[in-house]
Specification:
Strand order of the largest sheet: 1-3-4-2
Number of helices: 2
Order of helices and strands: EEHHEE
Distance between the termini: 18 Å
Shape: elongated
Number of strands: 4
Structural class: alpha+beta
Length: about 110
C-alpha cells in the first residue's frame, strides 16, 4: 500500500477515488512514566517515554487507516494527515486520514 502526504504520485495516475479512510487509537499515559516525565520536566530534555507513546500511536492509527483502504479496494492512500485530540486527562486520540485511491503507472 502506497501512502503519501502528496496529492499525486509522480509517474502514477489516479484512476479511481474511493473516499476518505481513517484510522485512530486512543492512548493513555502510564502512571510510572508520568512520574518520571514530571521529574524530567524540572531539568528539561526530551520526554522519551512520551515520544515512544506517540510514535506507537501514529503507527497504530496508520495501520488501521491502511486496513480500511484495503477493505474498499484501494492500492494507495494520498494526502495523508494526522490529528491529535485530548480525550480525557492523560489520554489522547491520534487520527490518521487520507484519500483512498486506485493508482496505476502512466
Amino acid at each position: 500500500m502506497i501512502t503519501s502526504n502528496l496529492e499525486l504520485i509522480p509517474g502514477k495516475r489516479v484512476v479511481a477515488h474511493l473516499g476518505i479512510v481513517q484510522g485512530s487509537t486512543v492512548r493513555a499515559k502510564h502512571v510510572g512514566k508520568d512520574i518520571f516525565a514530571s521529574l524530567k520536566n524540572i531539568v528539561g530534555g526530551e520526554l522519551r517515554s512520551y515520544t515512544e507513546l506517540m510514535q506507537e500511536a501514529r503507527a497504530e492509527a496508520t495501520d488501521r487507516m491502511i486496513r480500511e483502504a484495503e477493505s474498499v479496494g484501494a492500492n494507495a492512500v494520498l494526502n495523508v494527515r494526522f490529528a491529535t485530540t485530548s480525550i480525557a486527562v492523560g489520554a489522547a486520540e491520534i487520527l490518521a486520514y487520507g484519500s483512498a485511491v486506485k493508482i496505476e503507472d502512466i
